[in-house]
């Protein structure tokens, strides 16, 4: 049966995440997960120097052992990232139906996979070909990076502050939508001096000029 994936932004703050494996693939998975403020446990007899350093700094927990079924019983999300297919299969078998599990070398058996993500501060753009072509995925991410330069990080922060101000201080629905639309217009972004331009926009739309 063809899989149809449902893309979501998942809040893992404080959630227990278990990564089985300590090699380069596991390291890459852990580095991505660290940004989510999840509680990360790595289970592996040996780990890369980078993962060992993270464990020493208490950024992750490292359980220095071979995988056993009980290692994932309390996990919200599981990543099987060893270089041994039989162990990855054991992880998959140990996972319960309610748990999220990703098997690095067998995406078809996983119930979720991680897309490539382009980030500019609060701006996150996820790209996936559902495993069909990781190379194309990376190519598209590179093209997106050229479309949204470093300025967008500050711009997104500015939009967040403006949106909070509008939602809290403008009660008229039509004017609220007008303001929200105006500040996301490309011509507004390119003018710069966003705070000053926003102040002028507020006065004009709210009839204070």
TrEMBL record:
Database matches in InterPro entries: Met8-like, NAD(P)-bd_dom_sf, SirC_C, Sirohaem_synthase_central, Sirohaem_synthase_N
Entry-linked Gene3D superfamilies: NAD(P)-binding Rossmann-like Domain, SirC, precorrin-2 dehydrogenase, C-terminal helical domain-like
Any one GO biological process: siroheme biosynthetic process
Pfam family, one: SirC_C
Transmembrane segments: none
Keyword Oxidoreductase: yes
One GO MF term: ferrochelatase activity
Protein's pathway: Porphyrin-containing compound metabolism; siroheme biosynthesis; sirohydrochlorin from precorrin-2: step 1/1
Reactions catalysed: precorrin-2 + NAD(+) = sirohydrochlorin + NADH + 2 H(+)
Record's keyword annotation contains Oxidoreductase: yes
All copies of domain Siroheme synthase central, residue ranges: 120-146
Keyword terms: NAD, Oxidoreductase, Porphyrin biosynthesis
EC number(s) reported in the record: 1.3.1.76
NCBIfam families: cysG_Nterm, PRK06718.1
Protein name: precorrin-2 dehydrogenase
Native source species: Paranoxybacillus vitaminiphilus
